[in-house]
Amino acid sequence: MDTITSIEKIDTIKESVVTIGNFDGLHRGHQVLIKKATEYAKANNISSVVFTFKNHPVNYFRPGSIKNIITSEEKIKILHTMGVETIYCPDEKNQIDLKKLMADLGNRGIDSILLEGGGTLNDSALRAGIVKEVQAFVAPKLFGGVAGKTPVEGIGVELPSEAVELKYTDICQIGEDIRIKCQVCDKKQEESCLQES
Predict the structure, then answer these.
(1) How far apart are CA 126 and CA 8, in angstroms?
(2) Which residues are CB-contacts of 111 (< 8 A; sequence separation ≥ 6)?
(3) Which residues fall within 8 angstroms of residue 146, CB to CB, at 6 or more apart?
(4) Of 36, 64, 62, 61, which Cα lies nearest the Cα of 50?
(5) What would the pLDDT profile of 150-187 be if each residue is shown by its tens digit?
(6) What is the distance between the alpha carbons of residues 102 and 51, in angstroms, rounded to a whole number?
């Protein structure tokens, strides 16, 4: 297994299944996602890659606001025992250039990734324009609270016309949860998306 710390050094990775997330603590949900990725990779004879971060993504916007549950070294060790290759990819500002990452992965034949992240990473990915599909799961639970978590954080938008437009492609029940699958509309497509809604 390899640990790669720079996007310029990932030329050894060819066709792969990639999961992206902070994966701090590697809790059960993370483990299920990574296990599915590694199983898919084995079944298709391709590499399993985890793109993760040394620093929690929130700290790029609010430095020092979140402390990691486990060290980077512990995370790498656990990921390697799970059968994945680990990629850290900070830019010169210790941030991730998501467009550059997607371009480099595309040049290596990787044309689809699953982004598992919190509201900050989701906001960054949407603002970078790298999201083509959203799958949202709604559980039959209400949490509430002024400081309640949202799937997309960041600075938000001031007007509804500035929001990211989505087009429903599928809604289904999975156990007690409801999965809503949507296509992210390009600015050119937004008119047809609004007309069909």
Answers:
(1) 24
(2) none
(3) none
(4) 36
(5) 888 877 888 998 889 999 999 999 999 999 999 999 86
(6) 11
Tell which residue, 3, 5, 4, 22, has the closest CA to residue 116: 22
Cα separation, 145 vs 147, in Å, equals 5
Distance CA 166, CA 162 (A): 12
Rounded CA-CA distance 114/63 in Å is 26
CA angle 50, 52, 58 (to 5 degrees): 150
pTM as predicted: 0.58
DSSP state of 125: H
Q: How far apart are CA 110 and CA 107, in angstroms?
A: 7
- Secondary structure (DSSP) of 57-120: THHHHSTTSS--SS-HHHHHHHHHHTT-EEEE---TTS---HHHHHHHHHHTT---EEE---HH
- For 184, the 3-state DSSP assignment is strand
195 has pLDDT over 80: no
Of 65, 77, 74, 79, residue with least CA distance to 21: 79
Q: What is the pLDDT of residues 52-94, one digit of tens each?
A: 877 776 776 677 777 888 888 888 888 888 888 766 655 545 5
List b or e across 144-178, with b for residues whose CB sees 16 or more CB atoms inside 10 angstroms.
eeeeeeeebbeeeeeeeeeebbbeeeeeeeeeeee
